[in-house]
Amino acid sequence: MRRSLLRRTVALGLTVLLLIFAVGCEKRVERQEKPKEDDKMVVGFSLGTLMEDRWIRDRDIFISKAEEENIEVIVNNANKDSDLQYKQVKTMLNQGIDVLVIAPNDSNTEARCVKAAKDKKIPVISYDRLVSNANVDVYISFDNYQVGKIMAEYLTENVPKGGYIIIGGSENDSNSKMLYDGAMKVLEPFIEKGDIKILAKTWIDGWIRESAYDFMREELKSHKNDVKAVICGNDSLAWGAIDALSEAQIAEKVQVTGQDADLVACQRIVTGKQALTVYKPIKDLVKKTVEVCMQLHKGEKIKTDKVIDDGTYEVPYIFIGVQAVTKDNINDTVIKDGFHLYEDVYQTE
């Protein structure tokens, strides 16, 4: 009787142990077979500034598009401080980004940002502005040479004779020089014939609107308001120039061009104070950039339009088309594309 009880007790104990072991094994197998979450791709988006309306759009559209592709974005704004941009890039690299997208504050100094990324084997996209002497993996921007041509072609058609003033953006921004080269390509034959005279030209460091205003004000005094057209590096500089023209009460008599299709520029166009802006579809630029980010992350080959000289290296270049915007086609361009609302441009309630 005692032996039978002992045997039953031992058997029961072994059964319990086997059950515990089986449950433990089952849990371990369950943990092993649980699928791992895919690591999210992380992109560092380093912006030199957010002072102009267009850069805020770049940031917001970029974040939205990246989220659609399940990409995490770390955004930093350097507030036009090159040293701060370098520090921010190094911090992003330490945070483990997979791709660096950089719109440099200063094209000539941010090669150090690219070098820091390359030292960690992180691919780099130069966004909108080209980093000089850096050999980035790819440069994605608008056709800035064409921007300058569009401005000059419009002006020479509408003001084929007279004094012109050119107010360019930062001299350390490669886009400024490309725009200038494009404009001069069109203007040179008119200058050679003596029909057009460049009364003055300057570069505005930091694209500061107030500096454009000061320059324009002085030139109007020097030339006794005898100015027919002004080519400006962007709409912010155009704003400064137009303020000076307004003070001289000739704003609607002088043809002024800019770029970026800022809301205030579009409002000036419909009221006749600005002749033209160049619309650069940021959503297309962002879409292509996010697409290339994913390709670089996967190690895929990037299809580019051509190469561009960064001062030392030939860099793969992808450019996005641009479009002239005037009073005649503003409804069919920026408004139709949803870039601005009709009621905002025409300031209707």
UniProtKB/TrEMBL annotation:
InterPro entries according to UniProt: Bact_Solute-Bind_Prot2, Peripla_BP_I, SBP_2_dom
Compartments where found: Cell envelope
Superkingdom per UniProt: Bacteria
Organism: Anaerocolumna xylanovorans DSM 12503
Domain Periplasmic binding protein: 44-301
Record lineage: Bacteria, Bacillati, Bacillota, Clostridia, Lachnospirales
Protein name per UniProt: D-xylose transport system substrate-binding protein
Pfam families: Peripla_BP_4 (PF13407)
Keyword Nucleotide-binding on entry: no
Keywords: Signal
Coiled-coil intervals, chain numbering: none
